[in-house]
Amino acid sequence: MYEGFLKSYFGNIDYQHSAITSDASFRCYSRVISGKHNYILMDSDPDKLDNRPFVELNRCFTQSGLRVPNILYADLDNGLMLLEDFGSEHLADRLNTATRLHDYQQIIALLPRIASTPASDFMKPYDAEFINMELDIFWHWLICDWLALDESSLPDTQWNMLKKQLVDAMLAQPQVTMHRDFHSRNIMNVSGEWALIDYQDAVRGPVTYDAVSLLRDCYFKLPQKEFIALQRTSFEVLLDANLLPQMTFAQYSRFFDLTGMQRHLKAAGIFCRLLLRDGKSGYLQNILPTLDYIYDVAKCYESFQWLATWLRHDIMPKVEAKLSYQTV
């Protein structure tokens, strides 16, 4: 189908295209080369995904001065878009270089610009119902489906209390625009400028969320000394932008921890859903590092000691065992 789409754009000009790595969604990508110019073709099945947020939020972020790929040509009825090619250098590709700390500092400076982006009708309400739904992804896909644990033996009372605590903490924060997947694989270096991709799930939500996504990345763990320094930097940057009214660093850190706990519970569940629903096994290796983040936070709070114990002595050993013989 996309050959006709490309021909309608390029006309009689020659082009070649080759598939590149798809993301964790139903979208597929190809790099298109025509002469000295490169493009990205996004194929996003409209029967599975609503592509209007991609277009609308592209406009919103662009107007806020953020770098997102230009949409050069689109056929939304068939889910096809030709995008500006940002190349192939993600933050993830620079994590073991001497510029790492400087890179993170530059990217943290983008947080106020993202947060201050005006709300759009295409940003879903990130309310209690939505936050609970995300938490249930962990319970449903990881605990019940992938590990196949008997629900009658699970700590459902504590789990429901945990969900309420996390929802309350997330809704108590200033609500701002958040990218929602602001991590090393979705931030690209384009000729020295930092650009964003995979922004179409942006919502209005807790002010700490994007900082958590960046600094407690499911795909890379910062050295503790760097994390501490960068967390403080994120606080100061957001405070200077008047996005943390009357909030102390201690309050920020607690919100940061609890928001991260919610995000990582959701993410661990999504990694299992990608396997069980979508047949994508490439994210299984990220489950244990993500559970480690949850354990590290939970053990520091008296009300979450049960979670730390449950994860360390029951869930994580079962995950390790499952991964040891997982072949699909």
TrEMBL record:
Aminoglycoside phosphotransferase domain location: 19-228
Keyword set, alphabetical order: Transferase
Keyword Transferase: yes
A single MF term (Gene Ontology): transferase activity
Origin: domain of life: Bacteria
Record has Transferase as a keyword: yes
Gene3D superfamilies reported in the protein's UniProt record: 3.90.1200.10, Phosphorylase Kinase, domain 1
Protein's name according to its UniProt entry: Phosphotransferase
Species whose genome carries this gene: Pseudoalteromonas byunsanensis
